[in-house]
Protein 1
Amino acid sequence: MNPADPPAIDARDLVLRRGSTTILDRVTCRVERGQAVAILGPNGCGKTTFARTLVGQLFPTAGSLHVLGQTLGHTDIRALRKRVGLVNPTIDNNFAHVTGAVVDASLSTTDAVCTGYFASVGLYDTPSADQRGHARQLLASVGLAHRLDHTLGQLSTGEQRRALIARALVHQPELLILDEPTAGLDLRGREQVLATVDRLLSSPSPPAVLMITHHVEELPRQTTRVFLMQHGRFVAQGPPEHVITPEHLSAVFGCKVFVQQRHGRYWLEVLPEAWLELVGTDVGS
């Protein structure tokens, strides 16, 4: 990482409107190369919309956005996307959805990862031997060396998610965006994905990683900055210990919570006494 390199993300007063609805409201943030940061907030607060603007799927109404030194709206978005990995997965029986496209789940896991070279739905181009070898190395690095020739659809949801992370890494991205990468996973699957991210961030030259989540337990241990989002705005930002507090999280999530830090990770607790405030005092009357 060269200190002279421009930041991975530099957003200033970013606004995105759809009709009369403001989805992003003067969002400002800066993410340095190699830095691990997180956007934390409730469902519907604008987290995924912001992620989609970073890869040019949505374009802001106002403000400026620079990704890896490129100005969105004034750069070749196809070239930029090869430098940015995005994992935003939804899995069904036929397709693994990624980056707004779909990956054919009937492909072998190796071939599914190779689609990342071509940003394609299926394997319409023939990957080189080097590309296939690299794909297999990436799958091994995320703990899937035993699944190279299984179809993507045969993998468990957690394994599919790790395969999608491998797919996002084929171009050795300088920025990796993980938009709720553990959504829908059981405990083991979630921890396997988080361990994969931890291993990536512990490598000698990690990409900048943006973790988008509404669970503090999912923040990588290497996270140096947290952006707390509510109603399309960052209402708090700073080091995790300054942002992940009961006061901040209770206000943003609308629920009284307690937070603890153990073994480098944060854990959130909601006491049953808070339930009455959430569902009303007349339940069962």
Protein 2
Amino acid sequence: MGKVKQKGDSKETGGSKEKEPLKNEWETSDFLMAQKRINRAAQSLKLDDNVIGPLKHPKRSLSVVIPCRMDDGSVRAFQGYRVHHDLALGPGKGGIRYHNQVNLGEIAGMAMLMTWKCSLMNLPFGGAHGGIRLDPSALSMTELEKVTRRFTSEIIEIIGPDQDIMGPDINTNEQTMAWIMDTYSINVGHTVPSVVTGKPKSIGGSLGLLEATGYGVSLCTQKLLSHLGMSNDAPTVVIQGLGRAGTGTAKNLIKAGFKIVGVSENSGGLYNPNGIDIEKVKAHYREHKTMDTYPDAEHVERDSLVELKCDVLALCAVANQIHAGNVDKIQAKVIVEGANAPTTPEADDVLNSRGIHVLPDILSNSAAVTVGYFEWVQGLMRLFWNEKEVYDRLDTLVTRTCDQVFETAKTHKLSLRDAAMRIALERVVEARRLRGLYP
């Protein structure tokens, strides 16, 4: 009797063992989480895999090695990535991040997220993203410039104002965008301001872009609470993360009559039911680099801040902050995602079953890419708008999209995330259908 094949054995073909197929390089936990979102939306639209299959993977991904001569004369090699997820609606649009944990799966997942964000806002962009695996705090400004310029040169064939437009993301800023713009322009022989967004105003940046994310998160929060009938006096807010997005969100919500009762930074969190002075907290943190010595609030563990009781929990830090391990402890009535992917799909299901509304990232933090679109248009036209014009246009687009998401959720009995994904996916699928399959 022949050997009974056990589970896990390699297949045998012609005397040789056939290895199990490898997974795609980008299939990390971050990317697989992004795929779960599209699967849920596809079920809502009753789309089969012939339609959805290509959208479950990036259209193209470029991995490059970036050699750099360091200040001490040594040469180090850094890993860089640029990914295009889908370009059916237009050229790619997405940020570039510098972090020592950057990998292809993370970048591919972010590119997919950008596809849905641009589609939901009805912008003429596809989804893209990029990053370099490095610790920017360990490099000098000269070294960062060299790495940025070499990275731009390595990916220059797939970027451009009609191909892929980069913007700032984690640990990149206006200066990074200026270096990218200059490097690209030198290589093509003329100045091309619309190859990036988020650049300094003196070389074509748009008014309002730096403040756009916080402003947009605040605007979406106000629209949602009004829609839910929760616009009572001074709704309480807890904000995780006091970076640019979190600080902007806090300031705009305070202006709108909200009360900030909890905040956190890397070193810890603060809670005061009577309200927190954001400017005072920021000044203290700049001076002491810690929350531990702040006198006018109760100190809480950074990771416990999301469990505080409040009307609104604004997640403005990093990904995967609400997950299966802490979702049952969430006491907020509404969660607003100021960061990208701060809630896992598993936590989403629990929150939905508990009646906690989650305003998804592809809507709530979409103001930055929307004003980035305005900057791209202004650069192409060589005609610039004043701040009022920028914010009037932003208000119109954000308000219209909020109304569409709320109506879709009501009509199809969906969560806000599933409603937003349904709208975004439907537009991309329609564009792909009309363009056809080549060849």
Protein 3
Amino acid sequence: MNEAERNETLLERVERATELPMLVLALLYLAVFVTGYLDVPPTIHEIAGFAEYLIIAAFAAELIVKVMVAERKLAYLRSHWLDVLIVVLPFLRPLRLLRLLRVALLLALVLRSVHGFRLVMGRYKGAYVLSVALVSVLASAALMAVFEARAPGSSIHDFGDALWWAVATVTTVGYGDVTPHTPEGRAVAVFLMLVGITLFGMITAGLAAYFVKGTEADGQDAAIRELSGQVRLLRSELADLRRVLDEGAGEGMIERRHQ
């Protein structure tokens, strides 16, 4: 094994080892993000802010380690631009775009979570779909709480209202008692509607495939049983034929002896 292959193997090991912890941190950032916009004591806000910096520092450390291990460092950074964005965005806060940058950072971490779920869950596609839906609901509720909580005439006043709206929207129920008023909130609503339609489309397709496969399996079982019966019949006939041939050969030997 040459040095490039060793680096590639080491990079794969690092990615496998860090994927689950980074997924947990990305989900934890949702709670930190929401806390920053809740009416809580200043101490809680300070703890949330400190936790946010720790999470970003963990992602930065992960990216540095992976770049050091990667054989083609610039190519790795280009192919993992989302990880780069997560690390770079917090340094742009002095540009007076704090809220917009925090929202962009949250969306980047949500996308990172989706990628993490796909790698961690592997072949468990049903759990992967439900996990993505859960993350989408929580992230949409968090964004809605930011966009709508202080908007004039809004029916969403806190994260609880936003979460109720998100659940009603993603399930395509849409009671209409809580609705977004701001353009940003409506954009989030469109996103969550698409997620809900896609989610239930995938669930419906999965159930249909399950029943179709079940029907095909029943047909295959019947065909296998029929073939097994025919094989047993052929074996029985071969055994009878062999017995007849053996008896005929024995009688032939007796006749030759008498002659």
Protein 4
Amino acid sequence: MPETIAKVCLIRPPIVVPANNQTSMFTPPLGLAYVAGTLRAAGHDVSLIDAVGDSLDTRHDAENDCFLYGLSLDEVVKRIAPDTAIIGVACGFSFEWPTCRDLIGKIRERFPDALLLGGGEHVTAVPVQSLEESALDVAVLGEGEETALEVVNAFAAGALDAAAIEGVAYKNHDGKAVINPRRARKRNIDDIPLPAWDITPIENYLERGFGFGVDRGRSMPLMASRGCPYQCTFCSNPSMWTTRWIARDPDLLLDEIELYQKQYSATNFDFYDLTAIVKKSWIVDFCHKIEERGLKFTWQLPSGTRSEAIDDEVAGLLYKSGCRNLSYSPESGSPAVLARIKKKITTDSVVASIVSSFSQGMNVKCNIIFGFPGETLREVFESYYFIIRMGMAGAYDISVWAFSPYPGSELFEEISAEKNLVLDDKYYDSLRSYADASRTVSYSHNFSDKKLKVLRWIGVALFYSSAWLRRPLRPFKMVLNVLRGTQESRSEMALANMLRRKKLDSSAAN
């Protein structure tokens, strides 16, 4: 226990959603809950404001044809206890940085003497700018539990010397940002205290079936591993998590699952891992232990899982253990593009893995990206052929994203150096291109913005026409599920979101 207890408030800001994006997900704040659990286990007085979960049905108009979902910025600030000494704000997606920055400014106005911390993927990727254009005092870089705890302990003891703490960036006396050496990754992640879900509005998510995956009941978030061993050039993982993949002990993970079944009546678990299935031996062991314990639940791998370890044997074990949804992220069907982006896969292996997963009864979604720098029309056509193969192989859904140079990625550094990118609000708004097809921005000199937008829609059309031609009853089943209020696939999730949006629009009009 620390000699002095600090009163800490952690904040998940409202989320920014483009008006034309139909796939917005309302997910519990797993990262902040982990940090809150760590601080509380050390004896500190911790509260958490989840602006989204506290007001799931509230929508505010925002700039650039967007909506802000959750509490307003002023409402968030009002909920912070007056005697709070340390306030931490999470900022994950760079697209949402202007909103986070504005919230931080409002917090500073009301709490001029509080220590303001920032963390998350965006702050880790561009700590200098995050500090110098906002009221933040300290930026927590990368995996945040240990670093945040050291900062809070030092501040509570009246001896905070940011220059002596690894894994942070801070403002010096001149207001300039200084970046300290990164903290080494924690090797035994089983030592990290469990997320402090009891101080979050988790029930609001559970009762609505909201989560990272499709709605299969009361869904709790989990992390079975941290990090990713791959170095894809478009991904910020190496900056945020490094390339060390660390898995949890399967028995301890199942202990957590059993706890949530008893405490929250959870029936489904969404794995938030960057890539949960890396070692075949680990996933086989995990599936066997579920059977040995006699546990009954469904679980999903909604982020881009690698396909290498998923063969007929593993796919069978996954389904038998309760896994129902998988997402694959091959990103391209062009061997040349795959080589340039350092995506170490083959299209044949992905298709074979999809066949295995589908044959065992799992619902598969695939992710493709168009518009990588230098990508040609011929390479897009190679991806079209691959898209058709995936649809014929049994995949249910696809997302065809537009490449965006996200801060923290290798391609961002290359493009920033070449084009001298200015990280202003216009740039951050351009990052919505990944999720909002109406605002597609091209970073390939071979495609205009308009042409890339058309290429995306053609890819989506090719996938569903081939998949539904092979299995013509699928679209009817999809509509029937939505009408029944159930979900099995991401397309059904998107349709349910569209209906929810229309309901909100009708309520606003009245």
